[in-house]
Amino acid sequence: MWRTAALRVAQSLLTVSLAVGAASQADMAHARGLFSGPPENSIAAADLPRQGQQTYLLILQGGPFPHDKDGSVFGNRERLLPRERRGYYREYTVETPGSRDRGARRIVCGGVRVKIPDVCYYTSDHYSSFRMIVP
């Protein structure tokens, strides 16, 4: 009985948050397992570019990573991801074929344990937008 009531409350909160344009709150609810199914702005791990799939697997394996900056703290200065304490998010390079530098593609993961992230996001445009990675 209490689960049904909790589900109704959670669904109501999602409806309100989407109505006011707070998609990041919905993403956070998805990341914390409050709702089933992928969020609207998500990408399946299998749909990541090949290099993104490789980076994602390295993250889940705990490395080793090809770039010194991989695993460094991501500050979320753009505030496009749900707010968390500093150090929660870490960034990883997704190789960009033909790029002379690290390119614009990244995976940003959040969680207390680095090797077991709570949630990961993919950006192809150097933090201008994010899509939650769903298994």
Automatic annotation (TrEMBL):
**What GO molecular function terms would the record report?**
hydrolase activity; RNA binding; RNA endonuclease activity
- Lyase among the record's keywords? no
Q: Which residues form the signal peptide?
A: 1-22
Q: Which Pfam families match?
A: Ribonuclease
What keywords would UniProt list here?
Answer: Hydrolase, Nuclease, Signal
Determine the domain of life of the protein's source. Answer: Bacteria
The UniProt entry, under InterPro entries, shows:
N1-like, Ribonuclease/ribotoxin
Q: What is this protein called?
A: Uncharacterized protein
Instruction: Spell out the SUPFAM superfamilies in the cross-references.
Output: Microbial ribonucleases
